[in-house]
Each structure stands twice: as C-alpha cells, then as structure tokens.
Amino acid sequence: MTLLHLMGSSRSGGAETYFVSLALALARDGLAEAAAIRAHPMRERTLAEAGIRVEVLPYSVPFDFTTPRRIAALASEVGAKVLLQWMNRAGRCGPRRGPWARIGRLGGYYDLKYYRGCDLLVANTEDIRRYIVAEGWPAERVAYVPNFAAAGMQPALSRGRHDTPEDAPLLLAMGRLHQAKGLDVALKAMAALPEAYLWIAGDGPMEDELKALAQQLGVARRVRFLGWRDDASALYRAADICVFPSRYEPLGNTVIQSWAHGVPVAAAASVGPAALIRDGEDGLLVPVDEADALAAAVRRLIGDEGLRARLREAGLARAAGEFAEAPVVARWREIFASFGER
C-alpha cells in the first residue's frame, strides 16, 4: 500500500522534525510513501533523498481551493490507501472525501474540529488519547503510538566551535524560542550556575528578547544561541546535561532524545515530561517556572557523577525499550495495514 503524508506547516519544530523522522523510518522499512507538504527546502530535500515523492502545496487558509484538489489528485496518482494528517492546517486543507482512509496524528491537545472525517486518530501520549475520548471521539477509533527516539551517527560537536571550554559543564536546551518552552527560566538558572555554559538550539519569535535577558542577567558570556540545527545528535553528544524547562509540553521529544543519546536530563514537570520521567530514576523533575529549582537540579547533577551515570543508563534503557524505532514502526504498519484493503 501507499501512504500519503499531509504536512501543512513550514516551521521547524518538534512535530515537523518528527514527521520527517517517521517518514524516513517507514521508508527504511520498505513502505511506499509520498508527501504533500508546505514549502521547506531542507525538508523537501531530505524526503526526496530517501526516495519519497514530494509535492509542495500552498496550504493557505482559510480560502484555499487549490490544495485539496491537488492532494486528491496526488493521492489518486500514487494509489494512496491512507492519508496521514499531521497537525491542524493539514486537516483544514485536506480533501474531505476519497477512496482512502484518513488518519489524524495528534501530538498535542488539538481542537478536534480539524480532524472531522478522520477514520482514526493516533495520539503520541496516553494522556492525549484520554483527552480525545473525553472530547467525545469513539474510543475504538483512537490509538496510542509513542514517538521513537534514535541516536544519530554524528560525532560530538567540538566545543571549540562555539567558544566553550572543554572542562566546563555544558548544558543543552533544545526547542523553539517561544514562551511555552521556558528558555527564560534556563537563562535565570544560569545566573546561579557560574561554572556552566549553555547552548540553546532553536529559533523563534523570542530570540531577541532572550538574548537581551541573557545580557541583563550577566550570563551572555556563557550562553550560545545556535539557531535551528540539523545536527541534533552532535549537540547531544557534546553536552553533559540536557535542560528542558518547558511551561507547556504535551510530550517532550527532547526527553526521549536525551535518553537515546545517554544525556542526563533535568526538566520542568509540565504534562509531557512529568508523564515520561520517573523522578530520580531516569531524570530529574522540578516545578514549572522555578529557576532556582532548575539550578539546584543541575548543580546536583554536576556534583554527583554516580547520579549522572545512573540516570544515563536508565534513560538508555527506556529509549531502547519503550521508545525504540522498530516497535513504533511496526505499530504504524499494523494500523496502515488495517486500512489497506479499502
């Protein structure tokens, strides 16, 4: 069977990154795929290099009459049995009818009006699955499939590339520069961690504000804003500790990616990380929006090599078990196969 992905976002964010990761994993598993996406040159190139047919569409809202027709034409041309809808814009612009199944993949607590007409909704956390059912969606038409995490092949990035001492504790924060991600909390924590350096990988609307805050706090000398990166594995391997201070986070890909790379993680106890992390066993949790608590957790990790080692090993075990690529791909293949005879 052939799967057609619908991705209407042109941003570089966690859901968009995972869309590419899953598409590549399914391609490695031999699934025939195509993708109707909004313009994003790097994404287009990555998918095409994996042998996935890519069509770039406008995904304009609210009055886009072109995208639905072109998606329907592409689906017919490639013989798609399933359309996999990624996020809300794809739902608003996707075709309403056709000889295919529609599956909506939810990585957050989205408004379900954008998923009307879907045959199945797939949640990437159990809590999101419960939310969907509580909103009135039939339980038998909701599935849970977690994201997978995999350590890439890139070697650790040289600290010298970003003027960072080899012997300094290096913290890594990954995420969009947005209020929800709490990166201002990480900067405030840095004021209480004078020996540490912080790399922030991501872009977004708060970049200037965060850089100004780093200056005001007197920590700018030890903070590096790296922008959006496509070498995440190299960054994880360079870091000693991952900090994840999100105020709002349905899942927390950074947590499972940290585990996959063997990096101890200290995270704010927002919904996703609090559901993932077993505090003190495979990570450290601190209250949301409390910079002092985050700094204390980081100091604890810096000062206790045995704790870092225990968290590292436990995280690697979680990533290799619950969040491994093979069982996640197998579960998706089961779902697609159940619609393959339409």
What do we call the CATH topology of the largest domain? Rossmann fold
Strands, total number: 13
CATH architecture of the largest domain: 3-Layer(aba) Sandwich
Oligomer: single chain
Strand line-up in the sheet with most strands: 3-2-1-4-5-6-7
Describe this structure in words.
The chain has two domains: 2-148 and 324-338, 3-Layer(aba) Sandwich (Rossmann fold), CATH 3.40.50; 159-321, Rossmann fold (3-Layer(aba) Sandwich), CATH 3.40.50.2000. Helices cover 40% and strands 18% of the residues. It has 13 helices and 13 strands. The protein has helices at residues 14-28, 41-49, 66-78, 87-93, 126-134, 183-190, 207-217, 232-238, 253-260, 271-276, 291-303, 305-321, 325-338; strands at 2-7, 32-37, 53-56, 80-86, 101-106, 120-123, 142-144, 170-174, 197-201, 223-227, 241-244, 265-268, 284-286. Helix 6 (183-190) packs across helix 11 (291-303) and helix 9 (253-260) crosses helix 12. The longest helix has 17 residues, at 305-321. The chain starts with a strand and ends with a helix.
Outline:
The chain is of the alpha/beta class and about 350 residues long. About 40% of the residues lie in helices and about 20% in strands.
List keywords for this structure.
342 residues, globular, 13 strands, 7-stranded parallel beta sheet, Rossmann fold, 6-stranded parallel beta sheet, 40% helix, alpha/beta
Helix and strand topology:
Layout: E1 2-7, H1 14-28, E2 32-37, H2 41-49, E3 53-56, H3 66-78, E4 80-86, H4 87-93, E5 101-106, E6 120-123, H5 126-134, E7 142-144, E8 170-174, H6 183-190, E9 197-201, H7 207-217, E10 223-227, H8 232-238, E11 241-244, H9 253-260, E12 265-268, H10 271-276, E13 284-286, H11 291-303, H12 305-321, H13 325-338
Parallel strand pairs: 1-2, 1-4, 2-3, 4-5, 5-6, 6-7, 8-9, 8-11, 9-10, 11-12, 12-13
Helix pairs in contact: 6-7, 6-11, 9-12
